[in-house]
Write a structure and sequence with these properties.
Carbamate kinase; eight-stranded mixed beta sheet; globular; binds aspartic acid; binds magnesium ion
Length: 416
């Protein structure tokens, strides 16, 4: 890069647990300051401290069990705003000039919807001016402003999306800092010999994030993929390369499976004895989509005397509304009983290498059978296999498939 031309900025995003205490805020500020002193133009994006978002929600629900979404957003956005001011002020004590901005001061415009708003556009001029003047800019994550001038939030974990969107708009790179040092082949708390991935492709990362890996928000990965933003997942508390999310991984995968995930916050809704006519599934799932409820693994059993059972999974937080919506739809169709089963877990394997290798699914099923685990339902895509199992079998199932596909530390050579 030629002398005098501005370097492309780096967006450093820090998660809530990295900011949970004053000591941690200092560590974060220290990291930002170091980067700034190295000559980088730094935009920091911060989440609400610790469990602030959940605490704010609890306080609200105590007073208003079913609060208007607008007021939820008004309240939740304050969590990130506090973090931004705290980090900027702490940077000042280190002799670094920093300015905090809310989402709207940072120019983030969203669609009109609340709680899961989509970013429509960013006007980054103010950030650019502040960076050019040598300031660090600290942006409150997870929030924007809609065309009505109302505060909106971007969905749980939405600060990742703020960071990626800012990086896209500023032409910079994005580093997501948390208390884990990257993306692992499995959650190391469940599978102790899981290992950190040097790289992972956007599509694999999107699947893993959607399947319960908590390092990065799926929507943020999708946005990064669409806009070609380089994303790196790193630890706030350790130096190290972390994991790079890239378009493709450079080399062809030696192994069919890149990573695994266990999601224990799922529930299964069973609709019994639904009339088996064309358009029935469409009516049930249209009603759910309007919810809006994301439906995952769907199984329809063979019909019997003109009736069929339809089962599907949803996230646990959507389970109650999903059951109610399905019950109303099934009743309209003259179907039978609708029930909800929260005693399930979803074990998933993700890998771009699956496309070119047959037999991955059968190996998963064989592995679970050898463990004596019963599979309740299965769903697959080109790069993913998910099995629904009883919740008590979830942990054991994850450990078994992780081992079976040679993903353990030092186990790499014996794969295939
Ligand atoms: N504070 C919000 C949440 O807990 C957003 C975020 O952390 O990214 O979901
Ligand atoms: Mg949070």
């Amino acid at each position: 890069m030629s002398e005098g031309s501005p370097r492309s900025p780096v967006v450093m995003k820090f998660g809530g647990s990295s900011l949970a205490t004053p000591e941690r805020v200092r560590v974060v500020a220290e990291r930002i300051a170091r980067r700034h002193r190295q000559g980088d133009a730094v935009v920091a994006v911060v989440s609400a401290q610790g469990d602030t978002t959940d605490e704010l929600l609890a306080r609200l629900h105590e007073l208003a069990p079913d609060p208007p979404a607008r007021e939820v957003d008004m309240l939740l956005a304050t969590g990130e705003q506090q973090s931004a001011a705290l980090v900027a002020a702490t940077l000042g004590t280190f002799g670094v000039s920093a300015v905090s901005l809310t989402g709207w001061q940072a120019g983030i415009v969203t669609d009109p919807s609340h709680r899961r708003a989509r970013i429509h556009g960013i006007a980054p001029e103010r950030i650019r001016r502040l960076l050019a003047a040598g300031h660090v800019v600290v942006v409150a994550g997870f929030q924007g402003l809609n065309d009505l001038g109302d505060v909106t939030t971007l969905g749980r974990g939405g600060s990742d999306l703020t960071a990626v969107a800012l990086a896209a708009s500023l032409g910079g790179t994005c580093e997501i800092y948390s208390d884990v040092d990257g993306v692992y082949t499995a959650d190391p708390r469940i599978v102790p010999d899981a290992h950190r991935l040097e790289t992972i492709s956007y599509d694999e990362m999107m699947e893993l994030a959607a399947l319960g890996a908590q390092v990065l928000q799926a929507r943020a990965v999708e946005h990064a993929w669409q806009h070609g933003v380089e994303v790196q997942a790193r630890s706030t508390f350790a130096d190290g390369p972390g994991t790079k999310v890239l378009a493709g991984t450079g080399t062809e995968r030696i192994q069919p499976v890149t990573g695994t995930a266990l999601d224990r916050s799922v529930a299964r809704i069973l609709c019994e004895r639904v009339p088996d006519r064309p358009g029935i599934a469409a009516q049930i799932f249209d009603a759910l989509a309007e919810g809006p409820i994301n439906v995952d693994v769907i199984v329809q059993s063979p019909s019997h005397e003109g009736r069929t059972d339809i089962a599907f999974t949803v996230s646990e937080e959507d389970a109650l509304p999903a059951e109610e919506i399905a019950r109303a739809a099934v009743a309209r169709l003259g179907g039978g009983h609708v029930s909800r089963d929260a005693d399930v877990a979803k074990v998933s394997l993700v890998g771009a290498g699956m496309v070119s290798r047959p037999g991955v699914a059968s190996r998963v099923f064989r592995t679970l059978a050898d463990e004596g685990v019963n599979i309740i339902a299965i769903s697959t895509s080109e790069i993913k296999i998910s099995c629904l199992v009883r919740r008590e079998d979830g942990q054991r199932s994850l450990q078994a498939v992780h081992r079976a596909f040679g993903l353990g530390e030092g186990q790499e050579e014996q794969a295939e």
